[in-house]
Amino acid sequence: MLFKQIKYFVSVVECNSFTEAAEQCYISQPAISQQIQALEKDLGVELIHRENRSFSLTPAGEYFYRHGTELLAEADELRRETIRIGQDDESQLRIGYLWCYNGQELHEAIAEFSSLYPGVDINTTTGTHEELYDLLRFNGIDLALSDQRRAFSEAYINFHLLYGDFSVEVSVRSRFGAMEKVTTEDLKRAPCILISPKEQQNTEQEFYQNIIGLGGNFLFASNPEEARLMVVGNRGFLPVDGVGTLAPPGTSIIRLPLYRDEHRVRRNYCAFWRKERSNYYIEEFAEILRGLLCKETHL
């Protein structure tokens, strides 16, 4: 009997679904079903009684679930305490994130991590994509949270968080105001408003032109409030990330999904850290953040 099989079984029971449990555990639905069957074969008893597309717990399954959850909690506490004892008293985790990030997921991840590991000091810093990359290269931070802007390097752990759908905000008075969605072709000659510090403007413009596929003129705002005022004034459209997005727009602005051809424009969001500096705390924080981000997207 493997420890992961217990975890899979508990997840199936708590989700009341093999499919949702598989997503929660980041494995396929057939794989989690096979693991549960292997667990039952190892124990020699039926834990789950399957009926068409539904299931119920047998008495043995009820007992196994009750004590399995206790075992998982004890194992988790054992792991945390062992790490705490084995680490220096002044352990710290240094996190870098994009300066324009506005979501709550990072705050929630830090709060959850701190409750699990109160002895670990968390320090955060913001920066542009290039600033975060340099901080990571020269040991200024332990991990960086960002969208993928360059090819993955083998020197780093490129920990996938999620794919975020991309949108744009436009004025209700614009020619796009009556649309349900827009394409990069629709926006080809419309001014694009980007939130960027002056030293990063050329880099941001190249990214949105060459990678996202937006054309037209580019206008720049120094902060989200300034950018939205430009949208309200119908000066252009504002690209909106699928992660850590701005608060919902007011009545003067609408947010539209962005497509390229027939496909929704998406961006890959990751946590990056150097392989040589990988440790449990970094990996645990990345897992917590991914769980929160995935939960938010399924609400």
CATH architecture of the largest domain: 3-Layer(aba) Sandwich
Distance between the termini: 34 Å
- CATH fold name of the largest domain: D-Maltodextrin-Binding Protein, domain 2
Helix content: 40-55%
Broad shape:
globular
| Oligomeric category | single chain
Largest sheet: 5 strands, mixed
**Unreliable stretches covering 5 or more consecutive residues:** none
Number of individual domains: 3
Q: Structural class of the helix and strand makeup?
A: alpha/beta
Radius of gyration: 23 Å
Q: For the record, what is the CATH homologous superfamily label of the largest domain?
A: Periplasmic binding protein-like II
- Kindly report the spatial arrangement of strands forming the biggest sheet: 4-3-5-14-6
Question: If you average the pLDDT, what whole number results?
Answer: 88
The number of distinct helices, counting runs of at least 4 residues, comes to 9
Task: Tell me what portion of residues adopts beta-strand conformation.
Answer: 15-25%
Number of strands: 14
Which CATH C-level class of the largest domain is it? Answer: Alpha Beta
